[in-house]
Specification:
By secondary structure, this protein is an alpha/beta fold. It has two domains: 5-98 and 207-239, Periplasmic binding protein-like II (D-Maltodextrin-Binding Protein, domain 2, 3-Layer(aba) Sandwich); 101-199, 3-Layer(aba) Sandwich (D-Maltodextrin-Binding Protein, domain 2), CATH 3.40.190. 32% of the residues lie in helices and 22% in strands. The protein has helices spanning 30-44, 55-63, 77-85, 115-118, 136-147, 164-172, 219-229, 231-239, and strands at 5-6, 20-26, 47-53, 70-72, 94-99, 101-105, 127-130, 158-161, 178-182, 196-199, 208-214. The strands form two sheets. The chain has a six-stranded mixed β-sheet, with helices on both faces. It has a five-stranded mixed β-sheet with strand order 8-7-9-6-10. α1 runs antiparallel to α8. The longest helix has 15 residues, at 30-44. It is elongated and about 60 Å long.
Amino acid sequence: MRLLRSILPLFLFASADAEQIVVAVASNFIAPFEELAQTFQQATGHVVLSSTGSTGMLYASITNGAPFSVLLAADEQRPYLLEQSGDGIAGTRFTYAIGGLVLWSADPALSGADCRGQLDNLESLRLAIANPLTAPYGVAAMEFLMRVDVWDEAQDNLVYGENISQALQFVATRNANMGLLAASHVIDERLPAATCRWAVPASMHRPIEQQAILLRDGKAGRAFLDFLRSSEGKDIIRAHGYEVSD
């Protein structure tokens, strides 16, 4: 998990009642979060800090007393558990984004290939996924591979990322031939051109419902969660490749 880092406020003088919050952000969501945080800071004067990592690692940090104000998880399980244990504030949990999986490659050898068909004949190809033990996108990838009956056969071909961002890095740098990646990640124009891609149908794994929960009460944390649910916040989330609930 990366060290806490500040997203610098865009205002010159914070109002007297401005607060500072620390948001724990699932690694797949860091790009939209940065845009959301900047827009929120500009509008409110509240200062937003962040810590990012796999949802499992963030959850462990929270249960060990990490001073986060808000969790933006990549699943619904950990926010629910935090609510049940009292580490999260009851009634503040909601789905802020719905993610998807894409089978994606930047390997020139797979140019024009049938990405989905490659799963049935991996041979020496390396397939990157996020670690299912800590990352919800890894769980979705595992469920999909089980659904298409290649999980057992793929064991020697799998390359595990600590989180979904690291899985993307493996594929983008060609340390893996293909990856089951977050659909929101592969729209990044900074990535190398895709040589093959296939959108995994949502019906082939459990929905990737990303939930938020307030961990420490305060006006800044509540205001940030309200902003995520606003039309402006939802537009930013959609622009980064996620679905949102009405």
